[in-house]
Every structure is written in structure tokens, then in C-alpha cells.
């Protein structure tokens, strides 16, 4: 007997809920949690004055990828309680190159966006 759309959706929700629960029980962070950890690591690095010596001699402070990954890993493992190996794998997966990164239409431009004159914002 054919299932209704509501039944199909309910089944899909239950299936996905079970997948998320199994991943959480195994200590695997979700992609959203990985993204949040990376953003928090970037925010921490920017606020902590990374490479202050470089700034003192007239250079721009540099934020290294290693410091971001390390801080994001600490957030996932120490604060959120995920498995260390699973967190490392999830971080590397989130930052791995993908085919769409090579598409010309996907790559953002580094040119400054024109700004509207004051008072004309929509």
C-alpha cells in the first residue's frame, strides 16, 4: 500500500534522528558543530592578538591554519566531549578541497565590492 507524504517524511525524520544519535554516541561531531568550532577558533585567534610581534614591526598579524585547527579541536574534544580522532577527521573533512572549489563561478572575487553612497541603503 502506498505511503502518504506525511508518513514518508515521518519515517525520514526518525531515520535521520537515529543516525544523529548513533553518531553522537560514537563521539562524532556533526558538520554544524565542526563549523561552529572553526568559527569560534577564528574569533578567539582574532581577539587574542595572534603574532603581536609581527604587528609591532609594522606587519599584519597572521592567523595560522594550525592555530585555528588546534583551537577548534580543543573546542570539540575538551568542551563538547567528542572523540579526538573523530574530531580530527571531521575537521579535515570540513576543510578538504572539493571539486566545486575549482569552479570559476564558485570562487569569490578578492576585489572590493562597491558600496552604496550614504543614505541610499535599501
Could you characterize what this model shows?
With 122 residues, this protein is an all-alpha fold. The protein is 57% helix and 0% strand. The chain has helices at residues 5-25, 31-47, 52-56, 65-79, 84-95. Helix 2 (31-47) packs across helix 4, helix 2 (31-47) packs across helix 5 (84-95) and helix 4 packs across helix 5. The mean pLDDT is 83.
Rg over CA atoms, rounded to whole Å, is: 21 Å
Overall helicity? 55-70%
Largest sheet: none
Distance between the termini: 53 Å
Count of alpha/pi helices = 5
Determine the mean pLDDT: 83
Strands, count = 0
Judged by helices, strands and strand pairing, the structural class is: mainly alpha
Oligomer: single chain
Low-confidence stretches: none
> What overall form do the CA principal axes indicate?
extended
Would you list the SSEs in sequence order as H and E? HHHHH
Beta-strand proportion: under 5%
